[in-house]
Each structure stands twice: as structure tokens, then as C-alpha cells.
Design brief:
alpha/beta; three-stranded mixed beta sheet; EC 4.3.3.6; 5 helices; 197 residues; binds glutamine; pyridoxal 5'-phosphate synthase (glutamine hydrolysing) activity; seven-stranded mixed beta sheet; hydrolase
């Protein structure tokens, strides 16, 4: 049995927990860095990346989050969470965690369109995934080991690099749990690989 955490400093935490539970796994809100030891995978939710970064520093989470990544445990960044994972952010000299080989641009779907919904074709997941975008970033550049899983209007909005999954939108805000289920599979695979045979 696996356990998946949701970083609970700010943002859409409860919805992610419900989506994970709908996928049949145990889900916990992570409020203290020590709790990271208890989970096999972690979701970094949407919200506001600069606020979340401030709280990561305030509660001394940064080293523990980087260690979590180094241990090979899967991490799923949604919207602001994707910005936290990215190695490069357009207009910023430093990344946050800087673990996923992508360059992201914040609020990149135009100010006049604050939020919108779109049906996406997602590789290996769905032909019609309902995606909710809220002041969303997109991936402007992806490294050679990054697999592009979905695009909207020619822009990369979902990608995977090994243990890291990142999307521009909010997969937790609808009743469609297929993308959460995809991440749950990543967590199960990573855990099985670690187990001695
Ligand atoms: N819904 C979201 O997570 C928005 C992300 C936000 N615009 C940021 O840059 O952090």
C-alpha cells in the first residue's frame, strides 16, 4: 500500500487529497517537513508560487524537498507546483526546487483570460481530459529526457521527466481522476522498484 502526500502550505490541498482517495490510495496533507519521510510520492498543488516559496523557506522545507527528489520519489507539480519544480523560470535568475528539466513562463496565457477550461488529449491517459487553467504557466522549453504528454494551442501543458510530472492546469478541480491515477501508478512503480526481490 502506498501513501501520497500533498504539500499543504497553501493552495488547492483538499481537492488533491479527495482525488487521491478516489484513486484508492491513502493521502495525507504535509504540513511539517518531518512528515515527508512517511510518504512515497508528493503532489505540489496550485496556488501562488512566490507565496508558496516564501512558506517553504519559512517552514524550512527546501532541503527536505530536494532530498525527497534525490531519493527518486515521484513528485507531481500542478500549476504553481510546476513552477516550483522547474529548473528555469522565464524572467527569474534562480529556480525554486529546480529539479525538472523544463523552462516555464508564469501567467502565460494572457492577462485578459484569467481562467478557462479545455479538453486535452493526454498521451497514455485520455483523449478528452477536462483541464481547468487558472492564471496558468506553460512549459516553453523541455530538456531531451522530458516526455511531452499534452499541448494546448501549441503550448506544452503537461510533461514528465522520469519521477517528475508537471502540468499547467488543475487536475484536481473536476471529477475526472485519470491524471491523478496516472501519478499514483508512477508512485507504485517507483516503490516496487525500490523493494528488494
Ligand atoms: N493556479 C495557479 O497555481 C497559478 C500559478 C500562479 N500564477 C503562479 O505564478 O504561481
Amino acid at each position: 500500500m502506498i501513501k501520497v502526500g500533498v504539500l499543504a502550505l497553501q493552495g488547492a490541498v483538499r481537492e488533491h487529497i479527495q482525488s487521491l482517495e478516489a484513486c484508492g490510495v491513502e493521502a495525507v496533507a504535509i504540513k511539517h517537513k518531518e512528515e515527508l519521510k512517511d510518504v512515497d510520492g508528493l503532489i505540489l498543488p496550485g496556488g501562488e508560487s512566490t507565496t508558496m516559496r516564501r512558506l517553504i523557506d519559512k517552514y524550512d522545507f527546501m532541503d527536505s524537498l530536494k532530498e525527497f527528489a534525490l531519493e527518486g520519489k515521484p513528485m507531481f507539480g500542478t500549476c504553481a507546483g510546476l513552477i516550483l519544480l522547474a529548473k528555469n523560470i522565464v524572467g527569474y535568475s534562480e529556480p525554486h526546487l529546480g529539479v525538472m528539466d523544463v523552462t516555464v513562463e508564469r501567467n502565460s496565457f494572457g492577462r485578459q483570460v484569467d481562467s478557462f477550461e479545455a479538453d486535452l488529449s493526454v498521451k497514455d491517459v485520455a483523449g478528452d481530459f477536462p483541464a481547468v487553467f487558472i492564471r496558468a504557466p506553460h512549459i516553453v522549453e523541455a530538456g531531451e529526457n522530458v516526455e511531452i504528454l499534452s499541448k494546448h494551442d501549441g503550448r506544452i501543458v503537461l510533461a514528465r521527466e522520469g519521477q517528475f510530472l508537471g502540468c499547467s492546469f488543475h487536475p484536481e478541480l473536476t471529477d475526472d481522476h485519470r491524471l491523478t491515477a496516472y501519478f499514483v501508478e508512477m508512485v507504485k512503480e517507483a516503490k516496487n522498484q525500490k523493494q528488494p526481490v
